[in-house]
Amino acid sequence: MKKVLAFVLTLTMLFALGACGTTPAVTTDAPTTTEAPVTTEAPVFEPADMTVVALKGPTGMGLAKLMDTSAAGDTANNYTFTLAGDPTEVSAAVIKGEVDVACVPVNLASTLYNKTEGKYICLAINTLGVLHILEVGDSIQSIRDLAGKTLYATGQGSTPEYILNYILEQNGIADLVTVEYETEHTALVSLFATGKVTLGMLPEPNVSSAMIQTTGLRQALDLTAEWDKICDTSAVQGCVIVKKEFAEQNPDALKAFMDEYAASVEFVNANVDEAATLCETYGIVPKAAIAKRALPNCNIVFVSGEEMKADLSAFLKVLYDANPASVGGKLPGDDFYYGAN
Fold first, then answer.
1. CATH architecture, domain 49-128+235-336
2. How far is CA 18 from CA 23, 113, 121, 325, in A?
3. N or C terminus of the chain with fewer C-beta within 10 Å?
4. Domain 131-230, CATH 3.40.50.300 — does that match?
5. Whether the predicted pLDDT of 305 surpasses 70
6. What is the mean pLDDT of residues 193-217?
7. Model confidence over 11-20: pLDDT tens digits?
């Protein structure tokens, strides 16, 4: 009888193995159930059509690889990218609600949040400090050496102006420096190149462009370093905003975009030569040589969630205390910071 029972058990085991093929068994302490197995596949979402607007220069440089991947049709969503040369172009499109995502200066992000009554919120920080004081000569060795000088600059009414003003004020020389603003970065670059200006403030990649074109031009001061001397918070210059309605209706698509953007930023910082070429290809920077020289100084990042809120809220508070109008008259509410509690 024992032999018969053993034979039956053996046949039962062989039948079970045959039914399962060669897949190894998974042992578990859970009781046997006849319910259908639970799938562990990643959730599938419907790709979204996303309009993305970015400024040329550092604010848009982190997108270079993503733009290239999108052109090859290998992204999670369907992206339409537009590059703008001036923040006012982006502002108009955002106020009209024509874009889903925009890369803008941080003070403009706060202003647009206020103007649209919270319809656009911040997704991530994408650019830290990129400002430098340039000089033909060697008279400027410290920030206080600017006293009594005329400094030409760009970025009036935007983050560069507020950063410069704050640094001058905290060093007690705001009333001793005359600042003349040019409308376009390229205009100031030309003034350096023709010798009409010998002292000015520019952001990257215009710093690199000016230095390539102007004999004897040097980077006298790094304003990110000057900011760090007087302030505990980081100098944050660019960020990514998203239409709140789009974020609420397409959370999975937005998460995929954030992952792809973060991967693009990582690629740009790790592969400067190829990234510089892509910046020229997609019109983010006029020439690859300029982008290559500028990228290491552009502080391209992708900071989201709680860290984004901590850095950005502190920086906006500094701007607000210096000039409430610089952030749209009031600081944004907690709902401004996407993905932060």
1. 3-Layer(aba) Sandwich (3.40)
2. 10, 63, 57, 75
3. N
4. no
5. yes
6. 95
7. 333 333 333 3
> Where exactly does CATH 3.40.190.10 map onto the chain?
49-128+235-336, 131-230
